[in-house]
């Protein structure tokens, strides 16, 4: 009887396809995309006769926040927007979109000016977070953020907030106390970055994708939780695929928001904003 044939190595199987990425992590990557439109791209497409203001009248100017007056379809507005850079030179000039205290104080000065002249305020959020450097701490970073939160709650004009990219913790929230808060479809807004969250929870920043899913940082998640008022659609593939189409969608949302808030009195605007933020996190009312 012939001996049983020796077993040979099986033919190599096809490579195992990589596990699909978590949808939240995919949106984090889109929010950070190098070609994603920044505040200046929307300013060029949305506002006319835009004039930028500089300085906080205390220390200096902060290029990570752009403030200025302009017109949206003929309606006067005040804009305060966080701005990232695209190439190395711009990133350094804008401090990678991480504002310092003078940036927040400049924004507050402009918002108080808007209230004085009865101009609605629009803010664009796009920052990985407030700058944590020692110079910012020495000049009162935490105090500047806290003051903005308090004073924005008291503004007697409409405040409309749009997260256009990354909404990084207090660095974004310092411009985020609005009557109406929106997010672009692939923007993210969270108390902490996925990498930092993973480093704290699992002692492994490599688990950022898992953290992104747990943080509920996407626009649909936050709308479901009642933390934002609407999601602004982006072109298929992300805002970087078509700047003009994204700006057109943003324009419609801003005009609708202005119409919704126009009938409210100054006292009603303050009460509306206060009630909105007091309700956040309350799931038993």
What would you say this structure looks like, in words?
- The protein has 285 residues and is an alpha/beta fold.
- The protein contains 12 helices and 8 strands.
- It has helices spanning 23-31, 39-46, 88-93, 101-116, 134-138, 141-153, 169-173, 194-201, 208-215, 219-224, 243-261, 266-279; strands at residues 47-53, 65-72, 75-82, 121-127, 159-168, 180-184, 188-190, 230-232.
- Strands 1, 2, 3, 4, 5, 6, 7 and 8 form an 8-stranded mixed sheet that branches.
- The longest helix has 19 residues, at 243-261.
- The termini are far apart.
- Residues 5-9 have low confidence and may be disordered.
* Helical fraction: 40-55%
Total helical segments: 12
* Biggest sheet layout: 8 strands, mixed
CA distance, first residue to last residue: 83 Å
Q: What is the strand tally?
A: 8
Question: Helix and strand layout, with pairings?
Answer:
Blueprint lengths: L22 H9 L7 H8 E7 L11 E8 L2 E8 L5 H6 L7 H16 L4 E7 L6 H5 L2 H13 L5 E10 H5 L6 E5 L3 E3 L3 H8 L6 H8 L3 H6 L5 E3 L10 H19 L4 H14 L6
Parallel strand pairs: 3-4, 4-5, 5-6, 5-7, 6-8
Antiparallel strand pairs: 1-2, 2-3
């Amino acid at each position: 009887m012939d001996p049983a044939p020796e077993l040979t190595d099986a033919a190599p199987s096809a490579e195992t396809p990589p596990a699909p990425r978590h949808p939240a992590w995919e949106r984090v990557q889109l929010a950070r995309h190098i070609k994603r439109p920044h505040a200046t791209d929307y300013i060029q497409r949305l506002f006319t006769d835009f004039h930028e203001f500089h300085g906080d009248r205390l220390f200096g100017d902060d290029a990570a926040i752009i403030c200025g007056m302009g017109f949206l379809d003929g309606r006067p507005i005040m804009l305060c927007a966080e701005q990232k850079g695209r190439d190395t030179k711009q990133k350094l000039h804008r401090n990678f979109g991480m504002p310092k205290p003078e940036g927040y104080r400049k924004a507050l000065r402009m918002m108080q000016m808007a209230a004085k002249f009865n101009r609605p305020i629009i803010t664009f959020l796009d920052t990985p977070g407030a700058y944590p450097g020692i110079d910012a701490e020495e000049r009162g970073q935490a105090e500047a953020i806290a003051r903005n939160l308090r004073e924005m709650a008291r503004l007697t004009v409409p405040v409309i907030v749009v997260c256009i990219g990354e909404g990084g913790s207090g660095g974004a929230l310092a411009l985020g106390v609005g009557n109406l808060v929106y997010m672009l479809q692939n923007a993210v807004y969270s108390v902490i970055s996925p990498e930092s969250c993973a480093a704290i929870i699992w002692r492994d920043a490599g688990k950022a994708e898992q953290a992104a899913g747990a943080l509920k940082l996407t626009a649909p998640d936050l709308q479901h939780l009642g933390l934002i008022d609407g999601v602004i659609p982006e072109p298929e593939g992300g805002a970087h695929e078509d700047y003009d189409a994204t700006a057109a969608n943003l324009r419609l949302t801003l005009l609708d928001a202005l119409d919704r808030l126009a009938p409210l009195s100054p006292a009603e605007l303050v009460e509306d904003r206060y009630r909105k933020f007091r309700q956040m996190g309350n799931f038993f009312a």
